[in-house]
């Protein structure tokens, strides 16, 4: 039996990982809600680990948020994320957890990194200032895993890995009107426009920026795939101090194309207008996921199919 602890199992990514791991009867899934276990509290984390004989950890708990939240609460973003990662990675080591997978984010890469963004562009330039504290914490998470491996893997057999997802969407997403990501925000806006018989939907910005989106169940598959991959195979494509692996869809869409896809799936018949007084953000953000593809993982869910499933889930739970 594999005793697997999923930190952040109530979140969008953690719950997708849990759904998939639960399909294997050899896995015993261990979880604790934020209320039961505050991962920023080292004492609580150490006590939790010492009781449970955990074999593997998926670290999908984090303080996450959009530009506004990152701008307003930078101290909380850097403090909470550093504490969660440090507590979990160290407690895993001291309790002899052999495998751990840390989930990072594409915001670890420099603002002006070449596109598509490869793993090796980490620490090659300045970060996007709006989420720098969050990104620094995520970079620290990668470097924690690498440093523990470098110092302890030979002696203790630990193997701690990191995966960097692109923008994710799917069941369990946040549909809050003010602070959601672009796909859930547009699903909500087009759905409400349809229900209210509105003649138009306004989309922020010019519609020209291009973004990459991965369905969360594909991300869960990527996470489990990477965590279970033979070490020798991974070593052929990564190195001791550049060990993180990107997980993206492989191609991007303009916000205008994305809006059309969502409009058609929802069946809104009015017009889309772009509010060009609102900022566009960076023109393009596409990750290079060839490393993971060459190791054997590919996304399976097209953007259309993923949005169809997400909309069905939104109607069931959030509308
Ligand atoms: N969503 C994306 O598009 C995306 C893209 C790239 C990377 N990622 C990464 O994937 C990971 C998971 O993201 P997500 O979208 O699944 O986020 P999410 O839905 O907000 O889930 C995060 C989970 O962590 C828990 N958590 C936060 N602080 C905690 C604490 N101090 N103690 C215990 N639990 C705590 C949250 O519980 P509460 O809600 O109760 O606080 C929540 O269940 C994050 O590392 C994120 O950076 C996500």
What does this protein look like?
This protein has 319 residues and is of the alpha/beta class. The chain is built from eleven helices and 13 strands. It has helices at 12-21, 42-52, 67-72, 74-94, 132-156, 182-195, 216-228, 231-237, 255-266, 290-295, 303-317, and strands at residues 2-7, 27-30, 56-59, 99-103, 159-165, 167-169, 200-204, 210-211, 213-215, 245-247, 253-254, 271-275, 284-285. Strands 2-1-3-4-5-10 form a six-stranded parallel β-sheet, sandwiched between helices. Strands 11-8-13 form a three-stranded mixed β-sheet. Helix 5 (132-156) links the parallel strand 4 and strand 5 (159-165). It is globular and about 65 Å long. Residues 8, 10-14, 34, 38-40, 60-64, 80, 84, 103, 105, 165, 167-168, 181 line the site of NADP nicotinamide-adenine-dinucleotide phosphate.
| Structural class label | alpha/beta
Question: Kindly state the mean pLDDT as a whole number?
Answer: 96
Report the end-to-end length measured between terminal Cα atoms: 39 Å
**Major β-sheet profile:** 6 strands, parallel
Please report the total strand number as a whole number: 13
Keywords:
319 residues; alpha/beta; six-stranded parallel β-sheet; 13 strands; 16% strand; binds NADP nicotinamide-adenine-dinucleotide phosphate
What are the SSEs and their pairings?
Layout: E1 2-7, H1 12-21, E2 27-30, H2 42-52, E3 56-59, H3 67-72, H4 74-94, E4 99-103, H5 132-156, E5 159-165, E6 167-169, H6 182-195, E7 200-204, E8 210-211, E9 213-215, H7 216-228, H8 231-237, E10 245-247, E11 253-254, H9 255-266, E12 271-275, E13 284-285, H10 290-295, H11 303-317
Parallel strand pairs: 1-2, 1-3, 3-4, 4-5, 5-10, 6-9, 7-12, 8-13
Antiparallel strand pairs: 8-11
Helix pairs in contact: 1-7, 2-4, 4-5, 6-9, 6-11, 9-11
């Amino acid at each position: 039996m594999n005793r697997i602890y999923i930190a952040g199992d109530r979140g969008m990514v953690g719950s997708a990982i849990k759904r998939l791991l639960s399909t294997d009867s050899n896995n015993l899934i261990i979880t604790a809600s934020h209320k039961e276990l505050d991962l920023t509290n080292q004492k609580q984390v150490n006590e939790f680990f010492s009781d449970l004989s955990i074999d593997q950890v998926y670290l999908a708990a984090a303080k996450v948020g959009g530009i506004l939240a990152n701008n307003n609460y930078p101290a909380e973003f850097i403090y909470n994320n550093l504490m969660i990662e440090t507590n979990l990675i160290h407690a895993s080591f001291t309790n002899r957890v052999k495998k751990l997978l840390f989930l990072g984010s594409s915001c670890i890469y420099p603002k002006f990194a070449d596109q598509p963004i490869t793993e090796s562009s980490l620490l090659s330039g300045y970060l996007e200032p709006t989420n720098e504290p969050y990104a620094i914490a995520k970079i620290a998470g990668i470097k924690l895993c690498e440093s523990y491996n470098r110092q302890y893997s030979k002696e203790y057999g630990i193997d701690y890995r990191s995966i960097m997802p692109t923008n994710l969407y799917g069941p369990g997403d946040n549909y809050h009107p003010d602070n959601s990501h672009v796909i859930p925000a547009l699903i909500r806006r087009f759905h409400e426009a349809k229900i209210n018989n509105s003649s138009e939907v306004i989309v922020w910005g010019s519609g020209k920026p291009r973004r990459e989106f991965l369905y969360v169940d594909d991300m869960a598959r990527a996470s489990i795939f990477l965590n279970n991959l033979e070490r020798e195979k991974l070593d052929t494509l990564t190195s001791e101090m550049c060990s993180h692996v990107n997980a993206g869809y492989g191609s991007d869409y303009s916000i205008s194309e994305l809006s059309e896809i969502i409009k058609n799936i929802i069946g809104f018949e009015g017009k889309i207008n772009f509010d060009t007084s609102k900022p566009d953000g960076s023109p393009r953000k596409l990750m290079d996921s060839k490393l993971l593809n060459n190791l054997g993982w590919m996304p399976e869910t097209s953007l259309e199919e993923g949005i169809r499933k997400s909309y069905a889930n939104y109607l069931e739970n959030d509308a």
